[in-house]
Amino acid sequence: MIEFILFYFAVLFVIGIYSSRKSKDPEDYFLAGRNFGPLVLFFTLAATNFSAFTFLGFAGKAYTDGLGQYGVMALGTSFMAIMFYVIGRKVWKMGKEHGYITPGEIMEGRHESRALRHIFNGVMVLFTIPYLAIQAIGAGFILNIMFPQISVKAGAILIMVAITLYVISGGMKAAGWTDVFQGGIMILAMILAFLFIAHSLGGVEKASITSYETMPSLFSRPGPNGYFTIQMYLSFFLLWIFADPMFPQIFSRFYTAKSEKSLKVAMYLYPLLISFFFLLPVIIGIWAHGAAVSVDNPDSVLLLMVKEYAPPAIFSLTMVGALAALMSTADSQLLSLSTILTCDILGKRVNYSRIITAVLASFAIVFVVLGYDPKAGIMGTLVKTTFPGLVVLSPSILATLYWSRANKWGCIASILSGEAIVFLSSRISLPTFGFLPAMIALLVSSVVLVMVSILTFKK
Amino acid sequence: MNKWWAVLAVMALISMDFWNWEKSEPFIFFLPYWAWQIFFITISLSIIFAIFAKQGWGGQK
Asked: What digits encode the pLDDT tens for the residues A386-422?
């Protein structure tokens, strides 16, 4: 086990050091010189987006709420790939033409408003920190299962320190190339875990039928607890399409494409990977019922299943795969957030960005130590915080890219009104008609954008 | 360009398979029918996006 981990970390640090030698200027550090080819861009987009949530959270949610989890995740995320064209292509072009590095610079460039840029970037930073902390928590769980003498919180801190070290050494090049390595491990580990568990349970068919006989409602929607209602299904479908491109770690990758070909290839390979990669953790989570595995925390069900039903070497590989999934997201989040803060406040200086990276990692650790509620689960925490906070940004960026009447007042009002709904829905029970509160926030921010832009439009 | 949006709209409608709610049968291999439908929709999207990347990507000014 320890050999796997040491090898994994050694490769990450070698990539980090190699990347630091290849970085010559701020654009190299922040955006890998805008030079990611098709496969690197595809892997970095996938590894960045597929996180602890994908590896551990999907299995946990499927364990409690059934196979509907595959539908709510796979469909919306696959459709989301069209945003590589709708948003990514334009962002890439504008970035190349104007030298933009942060997402908010596009807003400032079009609307000539520094305030709008700061609001846009500020929202991205604020709502990504809980997501970053989730990765750390996931790492804590994994290390705790591997080495019970390391507590969840101590494990979380250790991993955040390791991520910080290779991010500050190599910047976006390190994040991108480690994503290729981590993405490969993640996919391999998940496939092998699935195959070995299926084999141990008497084959895929027997494993599913045993679970079906134990709890038939796992295999239909709305699931055992009635979670996957039609409204929820539609809510998540829209949420992924509009929220995913607003993750700063995804948005900033649009700038890094070498050419439009990189974006094209990433767009059509993305749903292909999702088709099976999202199914595997979900089905393992469901099989846990038939296998009668005792689960205290649903988010640990995948690891418990692998520990119980796969050889020790596969268990070790799966652990490293899970670490790879969350670290590949966390490193990109750290880098994109520090890039935003550095470029917005201090200018495009690499050394300042390194300091801010360390400060942000400390914030994530504080969130882990003080603020995380393990009862909410990974999905519960993100649905309440990051996803609704970020989805509110999508109307203003789409209008900025495509609607000539959109203006700074419309965009600012849209973002602030949407965030007000997000805040209110976290405090009081708003009427949502069975939809996620994030959908109400998205609707309000869209309507406000159109109304205010029209009312304040000047020829 | 509009034809591509129409294709996506049809795919989105098929994705929202409300008629399959509360159904877990027929079971095909190790999954219910509706889960295979999701699997093949995502594969189809990949193919549609590949064709779009070749034929439709540059079509918008």
From this structure: 889 999 999 999 999 999 999 999 999 999 999 999 9
Nearest residue, CB atoms, B38 vs list A74, A82, A270: A74
Binary contact (B35, A237; C-beta < 8 A)? no
A440 close to A455: Cβ distance less than 8 angstroms:
no
What average pLDDT does this structure show over B14-42?
93
Question: Is the Cβ pair A74, B42 closer than 8 Å?
Answer: yes
Handedness of CA A358, A360, A363, A367 (dihedral sign): negative
Which distant-in-sequence residues (6+ apart) come within 8 Å of A115 by Cβ? A408, A412
Interface test with A, best of B23, B25, B38, B60 (most A CBs within 10 A): B38
ipTM: 0.95
Per the CB < 8 Å rule, is B45 touching A79?
Answer: yes
Alpha-helical runs (H) found in A112-243: 114-146, 152-200, 204-214, 230-243
> What span, in angstroms and rounded, lies between the C-alpha atoms of A408 and A390?
18
Is the CB of A268 less than 8 angstroms away from the CB of B27? no
Angle at A307 between CA A368 and CA A380, to 5 degrees: 35
Residue A272 to chain B, least CA–CA distance (Å): 5
B7 touches chain A (CB under 8 A): no
For the cut 70, the answer to whether the pLDDT of residue B60 exceeds it is no
- Neighbour count for residue A422 (Cβ, 10 Å): 26
**pLDDT tens, A180-211?**
999 999 999 999 999 999 999 999 999 999 99
Whether residues A81 and B32 touch (CB distance < 8 A) is answered with no
Alpha carbons A106 and B38: distance in angstroms, whole number = 36
Distances in Å between the Cα of A303 and the Cα atoms of A134, A154, A309, A332 are 17, 19, 10, 24
